[in-house]
Amino acid sequence: MPEDLRTIRKRKGMSVNQLASRSGISIATLIQYEKGEREIPPKDLRRLAKVLYIDEWDVNPRSSPPPPPPSRKERPTMPPRPQKKPPEEKKPPPKSPPARETQIAYLLTLAARFDVDRAALEAEIGKPLEELTQKESRFWNGRYMRRMAEERPPKSPIDRKRAYLPEGVDGFELAYL
Fold first, then answer.
1. pTM for the whole thing?
2. Mean pLDDT in runs of 10 for the chain (177 residues)?
């Protein structure tokens, strides 16, 4: 029983481009043959049969048109997309771990530069130094460091002049010699 050119080509796993290049028939003509718009002449029928490795009478000279694509009503509807989960409540940030010994020691050193003893420092902070967290310790260390930088006298501009030495020898070269 002869079959349509389209079904034979698909069964053989060939594309229209491959069939056109192997048979020497243009792509547009092959598409017309497959849609049933034109009847396949015997000359082209022999070529197609040879390329598809079938007998000439296995190909229907006038193919039936391809089935129409399914309409929207016939197509199965896709299931609805899953809804996004509502955002969960954010957890509060974890508490800062207790201050390290080195942080407390550095804070005491900075406070000592301003003649503030441990008791006065604890009174200023509002809690004993052992109960400080790392974050609080960083804050107080930074505060004392900024205070130290503000109270430091400004640097005087350097008043160096080039050394007047014979033959253009500068101070570094003189030290080397």
1. 0.40
2. 87 93 94 91 92 90 80 72 82 88 94 92 93 94 92 69 60 69
Q: Which pLDDT belongs to residue 86?
A: 80
The C-alpha atoms of residue 83 and residue 54 are separated, in whole angstroms, by: 54
Residue 112 domain-assigned (yes or no): yes
Domain holding 117, by residue range, is 101-151
Q: Tell me, what CATH number does 18's domain have?
A: 1.10.260.40
> Do 2 and 57 contact (CB within 8 A), yes or no?
yes
pLDDT in tens, 37-76: 999 999 999 999 999 999 988 888 888 887 777 776 666 6
Tell me the two tokens of residue 18.
Answer: 């491959």
Structure tokens at 100: 């390290």
Residues 117, 164: Cα–Cα separation, whole Å:
52
Place of tokens 């389209």: 6
39 inside domain: yes
**Residue 167 backbone zone (phi > 0: left; psi -120 to 50: alpha; other: beta):** left
Q: From the centroid of its chain, how far is CA 2?
A: 55
**Cα torsion angle, 43, 48, 51, 53, sign:** negative
